[in-house]
Design a protein that fits this description.
By secondary structure, the chain is mainly alpha-helical. The protein has helices at 5-21, 27-44, 54-72, 91-94, 96-110, 113-124, 129-136, 140-161, and strands at residues 162-166, 172-177. The longest helix is centred in the C-terminal third of the chain and has 22 residues, at 140-161. 18% of the residues are buried.
């Protein structure tokens, strides 16, 4: 496996800290849990078979470590002010990518019909741009233009609404709304 522990540290330390702090109110406990998670990652990374599952694997470790913390300390999840039940939330559901995806759905719906259709068919129904051109009865270059313009509009809407922090793989690791008046998120 080509995954190095320093690379994992660089890519995941900030997102993990945010993940933990959303679920553990005590700052010192959150830091202890963070260290415990990285010890587990360091000890077990050699056993990870599918490197493309690294993100899910790391956040599953974090999820389970936080649950163990609550059990060890005889704390009830309901009595915390975390606003979330760890039992019903997986790490994937709480990632910034998932949160931004819900905003993008609203943004796609607000696109002009020609661009909305192009984005829905190519991005969500895995249709190639050639298939799109055939389905709509337009030229291939016309189909490509619609997809590119639709993507550009979505990017402008997203960047107009949110400030994004992106990791080296292009994943959104954190975001902040620029304004409380954003109509998409």
């Amino acid at each position: 496996m080509s995954t190095c522990i320093n690379c994992v540290w660089e890519e995941f330390s900030l997102p993990l800290k945010r993940f933990i702090k959303k679920r553990v109110a005590n700052e010192q406990d959150a830091e202890d849990i963070f260290q415990e998670i990285f010890l587990k990652i360091h000890k077990n990374i050699g056993g990870l078979m599918k490197e493309n599952r690294l993100h899910a694997w790391i956040f599953r470790i974090a999820h389970n470590t936080i649950k163990d913390y609550y059990r060890r300390n005889n704390l009830k999840l309901e009595s915390t002010d975390l606003g979330e039940d760890l039992e019903s939330n997986t790490a994937e559901e709480t990632s910034a990518n998932t949160e931004i995806a819900s905003c993008l759905k609203i943004m796609v719906e607000s696109l002009p019909e020609t661009y909305k259709q192009a984005i829905l068919l190519t991005e969500f129904q895995s249709m190639t741009q050639k298939e799109l051109s055939e389905k709509l009865g337009i030229s291939l270059s016309g189909a490509k233009s619609r997809v590119q313009r639709g993507r550009k509009m979505l990017k402008e809407m997203l960047l107009g609404c949110c400030q994004l922090e992106i990791d080296s793989r292009g994943n959104i690791i954190d975001y902040k709304h620029k304004s409380s008046e954003c109509k998409y998120c």
